[in-house]
Amino acid sequence: MKKFIIILFITITIISSCKKNVTPAVIKTDTTDSLTTDELARDYLYAAMNQYYLWYKLMPVVVDTAYKDPYTLLDAMRYKTLDRWSFVQTYDEYLATSTGSFVGHGISMGLDSLTQTVRIAQIYTRSPLYSKGVRRGWIVKKLNGTDLAPVFIAKDAVTYNSLIGTSTAGITNTFLFQTPEGKDSTIVSTKAAFTLNTVILADTLHLKTGITGHLVFDEFIPPSNADLQTAFAYFSLNNINNLIVDLRYNGGCDLSVLQNMSSYVAGAAKFNTTFLTLTYNDKNTQYNVSYPFKTVSYPLTISKLIVITTQGTASASEDFINGLKPVLDVTTIGATTNGKPVGMNGFLYKTDYAFFPITFNVVNSAGEGDFFKGFAPAKFVIDDITHDWNNRNEACLKEAIYYLENGTVSAKSLYLNQPKRTVVFQENPAKNNNAYIIK
Predict the structure, then answer these.
(1) Positions of E strands within 124-198
(2) 220, 431 in Cβ contact below 8 A?
(3) CATH 2.30.42.10 residue ranges in the chain?
(4) Cα 276 from chain centroid?
């Protein structure tokens, strides 16, 4: 085994990595010329699971040859009581997602449960539709002449995928939007290839408590580092004293990017102190390691950190919260997070497959982890897709501002418990299946 990838992520269905200074032992499997590529990959995965899987002692007992490919084998071997995340990718899928490559219109659409309308939930600035003025909160009435609301209400992903088409450059779709001014607007958009901008927004809010930074961050992938450096240089220049980080759709991913971003937030006083500790199964204790807060160019000095969350906030995003809890005043607003206190190593099988089983547990510097039930917010607030990210009437941002200015959450609430989850369809649900390898 020449490559060892570390990732922290989750895939959201409806709608990673840093290099360790170790190289695991080569996984040996019996091979014969009579086996197909899928069967050879299946046997490779079987050996990897028995050696590296965190819950290898709790796996169902299976005979690998009873399964035709690595997909069916992994499903049979997973410890389903806790493991909702281990997965298999093709090598091409792995390469595309690890670099932030994207082909499409660059949007996610969601159902506004209060009005039963479909709206733009997220849009990347490099997307074809962004350049045509489309923004988060716009109503999407029709796609290629089909009313979208019934599709989303029924959670009909098959119909949605058929309408939007494959992730292929050159495919054209016709959208009927309703703008914030209430006017209908028909826009023809052609899917294109571009690199995701994972820093969706970095701005400042001038509050009565001082200048607060506001960061909307989509995904922990290596191309994010340059955008994060720009964002935190901006925050540093503006001398922010508090920070709001919006991770509501962030399913995690790359450990080195998480470490980098958390180091900016923790500040210079915490450089080289423990951030997170990774613990492997008892066959692989030599890989147990602690990651420190790194020395970064633009460390902040803040009093409070507010994190906006949904059920889609997972893994590295949750470790951002958990890892900073011992060193900062951290408060979450929105909905309970996914609950993934574990991470993955990636195993490449030639240029055919990439396997990502759960391989390690993660705790913060106080030894806190095992948050399988997620982090409940200080205040339950709906994911308000009717407003753009920087609109102060957006429900989660409004509540975060209230908390910073008043030292407590607001009294009035529509939700005493977990709000109803927003139905969101992404053009490419696999975009969160990210891993990154440093050779």
Answers:
(1) 139-143, 146-147, 172-178, 184-190, 192-195
(2) no
(3) 104-194
(4) 18
Return d(Cα 416, Cα 122) in angstroms, integer.
Answer: 26
Give me the CATH topology for the region 199-341+360-419: 2-enoyl-CoA Hydratase; Chain A, domain 1 (3.90.226)
Hey, how many other C-beta atoms are within 10 angstroms of the C-beta on 133? 11
Give the CA diameter of the chain: 72
The whole-angstrom separation of Cα 180 and Cα 135 is: 9
Amino acid at 211: I
Given a contact cutoff of 8 angstroms between Cβ atoms, the answer to whether 136 and 121 are in contact is yes
Distance of CA 309 to the CA centre of its chain: 11
Query: Residue 233 CB: number of other CB atoms within 10 A?
Result: 14
Instruction: Specify the pTM.
Output: 0.89
Compute how many other C-beta atoms are within 10 angstroms of the C-beta atom of residue 313: 32
pLDDT digits (tens, 9 = 90+) for 72-121: 999 999 999 999 999 999 998 888 777 767 888 999 999 998 899 999 99
Contact partners, residue 326, CB within 8 Å, separation at least 6: 364, 365, 366, 368
* Predicted confidence (pLDDT) at residue 237 exceeds the cutoff of 90: yes
How far, in Å, CA of 345 to CA of 59, rounded? 18
- 130 phi-psi bin (left φ>0, alpha ψ -120 to 50, beta other): alpha
Cα–Cα distance, 38 to 70 (Å, whole number): 7
CATH label, 104-194, candidates 2.30.42.10, 1.20.1260.10, 2.170.150.70, 1.10.287.370:
2.30.42.10
Rounded-to-integer distance, Cα 136 and Cα 387, Å: 7
Residues of the chain with CATH 3.90.226.10: 199-341+360-419
Task: Please state the φ and ψ torsions of residue 302, each to the nearest 5 degrees.
Answer: -125, 160
pLDDT in tens, 265-301: 999 999 999 999 999 999 999 999 999 999 999 999 9
Joined together, the tokens standing for residue 324 give 């900073």
